[in-house]
């Protein structure tokens, strides 16, 4: 077993699995915090980002290399825009959605973001997606429809499922814009440095939002489990998975690391079943399988320049 773990660590598979597991647990931690106390989404997100800020700063420090170049004014602007889209708006929409829907359904909806990236990129380049891509997107959305129908059956006549699904869909949409915007920037400044900078900037945005429009004075009244789940979310589902994913890309390449990431929705569904008591029906599993099948058919070609940049920065940061 130790030899297998060592081989998987050497070729990157262990880090890819750890990253997928960490990201998949985020929705479970959110639901556990909501179960511990009826905390507002903005308050919970602010706690997560407050705990994550030192870890994002650590990522910036870890990504330093002897030849690190200072950011241009344009790069700084892009980092703040990415922070607004990715870790701020996308996270805020997601936390709102999780007050209405299950963790398993949330992960399935978020997992649609590659189809959105493809459509946005097609609009940007004015080149229509291939027939294979259209087929893959159709499979994804049929699978999502099956999964949503399962939750609608469980909810009865209420509209909570549709409301929550809309919030999480908006989260996937803003994350797709974030993902699309990282392409050129990550080649220039590196994935770990970008994650640290965008994460730190998003912490400032979230905490500023919370101080201006939230209820900071209510924090002392929150029970300890809310702080515990927020801390675990910041460490295990935010900073460490970003670092593990960078190590996986270094060893496996971007495309193969993304393929291992297809474990995410499966891990979320089963973690939600084991830890939250969420149902696990044949209809839900069928929807899950279709969404995963569709996304794997959209697997992008590895960007050689981006992969080389990641390998360079990680080799330098570990020396």
General description of the model:
With 319 residues, this protein is mainly α. The protein has one domain. The chain has 15 helices and no strands. Helix 3 runs antiparallel to helix 11 and helix 4 packs antiparallel against helix 10. The chain is globular. It starts with a helix and ends with a helix. The C terminus is likely disordered.
- Mass-distribution shape: globular
How many structurally independent domains? 1
Rg, Cα atoms, Å:
19 Å
* Order of helical and strand elements: HHHHHHHHHHHHHHH
- Give the terminus-to-terminus CA distance: 28 Å
Query: Treating each run of at least 4 consecutive H or I residues as one helix, how many helices?
Result: 15
Strand content: under 5%
- Number of separate strands: 0
Share of helix, binned: over 70%
Mean pLDDT: 84
Subcellular location: Cell membrane
Keywords: Cell membrane, Membrane, Transmembrane, Transmembrane helix
Main location: membrane
Protein name: DMT family transporter
Relevant terms:
mainly alpha; 15 helices; globular
What is this entry, summarized?
This protein is mostly helical.
List the helices and strands and how they pair.
Elements: H1 2-11, H2 13-24, H3 26-36, H4 41-62, H5 73-97, H6 103-110, H7 113-125, H8 131-155, H9 160-189, H10 191-213, H11 224-252, H12 254-260, H13 263-276, H14 282-296, H15 304-318
Helix pairs in contact: 2-11, 2-13, 3-11, 3-13, 4-5, 4-10, 4-11, 5-9, 5-10, 6-9, 6-13, 7-9, 8-9, 8-14, 9-15, 11-12, 11-15
């Amino acid at each position: 077993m130790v030899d297998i773990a060592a081989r998987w660590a050497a070729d990157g598979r262990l880090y890819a699995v750890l990253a997928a597991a960490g990201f998949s647990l985020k929705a479970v931690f959110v639901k556990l915090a909501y179960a511990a106390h009826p905390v507002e989404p903005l308050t919970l997100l602010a706690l997560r980002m407050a705990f994550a800020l030192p870890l994002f700063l650590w990522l910036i420090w870890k990504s330093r290399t002897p030849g690190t170049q200072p950011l241009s004014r344009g790069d700084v602007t892009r980092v703040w825009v990415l922070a607004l889209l990715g870790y701020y708006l996308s996270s805020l929409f997601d936390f709102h959605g999780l007050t209405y829907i299950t963790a398993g359904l949330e992960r399935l909806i978020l997992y649609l973001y590659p189809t959105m990236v493809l459509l946005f990129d097609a609009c940007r380049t004015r080149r229509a997606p291939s027939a294979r891509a259209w087929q893959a997107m159709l499979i994804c959305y049929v699978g999502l429809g099956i999964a949503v129908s399962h939750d609608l059956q469980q909810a009865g006549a209420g509209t909570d499922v549709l409301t929550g699904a809309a919030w999480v869909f908006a989260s996937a949409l803003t994350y797709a814009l974030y993902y699309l915007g990282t392409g050129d920037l990550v080649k220039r400044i590196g994935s770990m440095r970008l994650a640290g900078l965008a994460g730190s900037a998003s912490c400032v945005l979230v905490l500023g939002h919370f101080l201006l429009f939230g209820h900071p004075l209510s924090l002392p009244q929150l029970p300890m489990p809310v702080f515990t789940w927020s801390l675990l979310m910041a460490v295990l589902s935010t900073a460490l998975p970003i670092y593990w994913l960078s190590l996986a890309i270094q060893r496996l390449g971007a495309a193969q690391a993304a393929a291992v990431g297809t474990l995410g929705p499966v891990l979320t569904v089963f973690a939600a079943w084991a830890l939250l008591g969420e149902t696990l029906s044949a209809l839900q599993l069928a929807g899950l399988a279709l969404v995963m099948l569709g996304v794997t058919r959209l697997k992008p070609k590895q960007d050689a320049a981006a992969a080389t940049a990641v390998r360079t920065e990680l080799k330098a940061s570990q020396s």
